[in-house]
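Researcher: Structure prediction, please.
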Amino acid sequence: MNTSRRPEFKRVMIKLSGEALMGNQGFGIEPEMIKYVAAEVAEIQKMGVQVSIVVGGGNIFRGIAGSSAGMDRAAADNMGMLATVINSLALSDAMEQYGVSTRVQSAISMNEIAEPFIRRKAERHLDKGRAVIFAAGTGNPYFTTDTAAVLRAQEIHAEILFKATQVDGVYNKDPSAHKHAAFIKKISYMEVIEQQLHVMDMTAISLAMDNGLPLHIFNLHTKGNIAKAVCGEAIGTRIY
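Model: Predicted structure follows.
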């Protein structure tokens, strides 16, 4: 265990977007990027933190995009959930290569490649020092992986949900479209909802608010940020 830094949390949930795994290639999984993510997660796991992860599937297929192109929404979302399984298996393999024991649990039954989601079993894995990757969202169409991450975090009693994104945190406007967008260090759930800030979907924010789950948004691409967040350093945005 790394004793030079003291984690503030014992059990955490990390939400990763599928887009985070594709790097600069525009589609799929970039090997160097998934190695980077695995190394960042391995760092906190070696501190003794119990790590759970939900990863999206937008680098392979985004259900809502398929729906807008004319597909049935349920069918499109089912395809998106399968994309998250691919990402979860890839991340699991990469993390194992960094010495992190992992288990993939899927909300959709596929026993040959992943365990079914069983809450008590997931908590047992975490207690034994294994990282658990939750795949296939909630197992239901019309729900995003953001909502799945909040739901699973609540079920396993995670102390906080970290959303590792492409930007430094929450802004009052889209920083890619507005150069004078103001960075927000702390904000309440209700303010996020009232201002329609698209940091997570509103179902996820409402579920976190109802259950008092703290959310912490920060930039995945800054090396060491996951460890800094786990150790309580002042990076990104905290939603409380």
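Model: The chain has a mean pLDDT of 94.
Researcher: Thanks, that helps.
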